[in-house]
Amino acid sequence: MSKLTGKQKARARKKKQRSEKQQKAKYYAQLKSRILLWDASGLNEDCIDLTQQDDCEKIAHDLTRILAVTDNGVGLSAPQIGIHKRVFVMRPDHKKNLIKILINPKIIKNSEEEFTMMEGCLSYPGIYCSIERPRTIKLEYYDEKWRRREESFSSLSSRVIQHEVEHFIPYRCQVGDYWRKMKFIKSQKTEEQPKIEEGSPALQ
Q1: CATH number among 3.90.45.10, 3.40.50.300, 3.30.110.10, 2.60.40.740, domain 20-186
Q2: Cα separations (Å) of 57 from 18, 38, 50, 104, 184?
Q3: Exposed (0-12), middle (13-18) or buried (19+): which is 36, by Cβ within 10 Å?
Q4: Model pLDDT for residues 110-151, shown as the tens digit of each residue
Q5: Distances from the Cα of 78 to the Cαs of 16, 26, 94, 157, in angstroms?
Q6: pTM of the predicted structure, to 2 decimals
Q7: Is 82 exposed, middle or buried (0-12, 13-18, 19+ CB in 10 A)?
Q8: Which are the catalytic amino acids?
């Protein structure tokens, strides 16, 4: 038996750190892969209220874990991971990573004042569009302990909630609607492009 030298210990430590980093990256990738993308089957379906007979704890846990590993996600709804229930999680200040769970949310009041802001969506990566929404809303929902709440939200929190609630209704997500319009326009332009025959100057 022999003792490891200082250099050998350092190499072993670096190897362990690399292995842990790779395992962590793989775990994160597996979680992110659960997010339904584009017009995936299951993304645009009607959602129903969550009940206490459902496995609320597991659904909330899954949503929380997945949102936590996204780079800049501030909200994630159950239908985005294939669960057609009215529940979502959010963290408007993603730097603090404080995630809030909202069950069966219902917007009961909107402010007349609106504001416009660029929005993206985890189900439509890389797509951003300008959307106008009420600045303040009043929301009725249940928390993770099934306590009924009424709370007012404004600015970014209000916007996140309005965005996530859209996911409960098929094809209501405005970012997804923007993507579909852009996709259609692009397909129309492709069809209208003149065909270039072989031997033309453009191919030489």
Answers
A1: 3.90.45.10
A2: 33, 27, 11, 14, 40
A3: middle
A4: 999 999 999 999 999 999 999 999 999 999 999 999 999 999
A5: 36, 22, 19, 18
A6: 0.80
A7: middle
A8: 164
